[in-house]
Design a protein that fits this description.
The protein is of the alpha/beta class. It has one domain (5-173): 3-Layer(aba) Sandwich (Rossmann fold), CATH 3.40.50.300. The chain has 7 helices and 5 strands. It has helices spanning 15-26, 33-41, 45-68, 85-94, 104-113, 128-146, 157-173, and strands at residues 5-8, 29-32, 73-76, 96-101, 149-152.
Length: 174
């Protein structure tokens, strides 16, 4: 299977961590839409949002998705990538889309342990745990809609990688 693999899910679900490990296990290239955006704009996500607003950021994000899409590539996407129907459709057409699913409490605990605030602007300015509940309530349905498969991301990164490889091998068998 040479098609790109897209990892989707909320901030903190492990798209970058798991994506790097998965790419190395498969011998694929790893790309990250947020890192790509930072590289080409020479700005952080927080800076882009401050200067161009979330709508400007979202437009750049759609372009970044197209830029990094290639065969034999694992692509970690920004948490809000699924908000645009265009992005959901594009990912489903071009490759396999996997939702790394984790509870709001798990996501909040991970983000609190490693805040990296400049990389991760809060969406509401409220406590991270409240924000994750709200973000998941708004986006969980979109993640499910966009995904070909849902992976339990509340296990070690190694186990998440194994679960993904297992689900891909099942998908290939049918
Ligand atoms: P994302 O790219 O989805 O925002 P990251 O890969 O950056 O998520 O992970 C966010 C934080 O959670 C990082 O500090 C990372 O080390 C940690 N993390 C990621 N996946 C797991 C996991 N399966 N178990 C425990 N911690 C994890
Ligand atoms: Mg990431």
């Amino acid at each position: 299977m040479s098609l790109p693999l897209y990892l989707i899910g909320a901030r903190g679900c492990g798209k970058t961590t798991v994506g790097q490990a998965l790419a190395s296990a498969l011998g694929y290239t790893f790309r990250d839409t947020d890192s790509h955006l930072q590289l080409i704009t020479q700005r952080t996500v927080a800076e882009i949002v401050a200067e161009e607003g979330w709508s400007g950021f979202r437009q750049r994000e759609t372009q970044a998705l197209k830029d990094v899409t290639a065969p034999f590539t694992v692509i970690a996407t920004g948490g809000g990538m699924v908000l645009a129907a265009e992005n959901r459709r594009y990912m489903r057409e071009k490759g396999s889309v996997l939702y790394l699913n984790a509870d709001a409490g798990v996501l909040a605990a991970r983000l609190e342990a490693y805040p990296e605030k400049d990389q991760r602007p809060t969406l509401t300015g409220r406590p991270i745990a409240d924000e994750m509940i709200e973000v998941l309530a708004a986006r969980d349905g979109l993640y499910h809609d966009a995904a070909h498969g849902v992976i339990n991301a509340m296990q070690t990164p190694e186990s998440v990688v194994e679960a993904i490889i297992h689900s891909l091998s099942l998908a290939r068998a049918v």
